[in-house]
């Protein structure tokens, strides 16, 4: 298994079905709970263990999820209120190296992620399927629909939780 991609690399679905969207919404909704379950009981030393050689620590992964999903939620709000806005990208490795990502308690990002996801899901469930065709422009990925945003972030959450679960299995934690 490629430790970088324990669930496989991300690929957009060509023909999105309503059932897929419902699953992605569910995946986003449960992520904070799944993540919290995976990190509960880990020691500080375990939290500061990289999930692979040269990779981020568990702590950095947790903080990265909050950073990334905050951006994902904001991208939805921009797409709903502007005409195909161009979103800002960021250097996730530089963000992961900042002091809050390397040293802050993971509970801060669990709380943030829980709140972001609650708002995100409330918003998504309040709009029509037609509205999910709204778009934003990502300078690195091109034009994305709100449905593709859901697919991307549903995968992203599972991807990083798998980093933690596979590390725990390899380390017998």
Care to describe what's here?
With about 170 residues, this protein is mainly alpha-helical. The mean pLDDT is about 95.
List keywords for this structure.
single chain, 173 residues, mainly alpha, two-stranded antiparallel sheet, 2 strands
Radius of gyration: 16 Å
- Helices, by number, come to 7
- SS content category: mainly alpha
**Arrangement of strands in the largest sheet:** 1-2
The major pleated sheet works out as: 2 strands, antiparallel
Spatial shape: globular
Head-to-tail CA distance between termini: 19 Å
Sheet-strand content, in percent, reads under 5%
Helix residue percentage: 55-70%
How many β strands by DSSP?
2
Show unreliable segments.
none
The helix-strand sequence is HHHHHHEEH
Overall average pLDDT: 97
Task: Give the structure's gist in a few sentences.
With 173 residues, the protein is mainly alpha-helical. The chain has seven helices and two strands.
Please give the structural blueprint.
Layout: H1 18-39, H2 44-47, H3 58-81, H4 92-96, H5 99-103, H6 106-125, E1 135-138, E2 142-145, H7 146-171
Helix pairs in contact: 1-6, 1-7, 3-6, 3-7
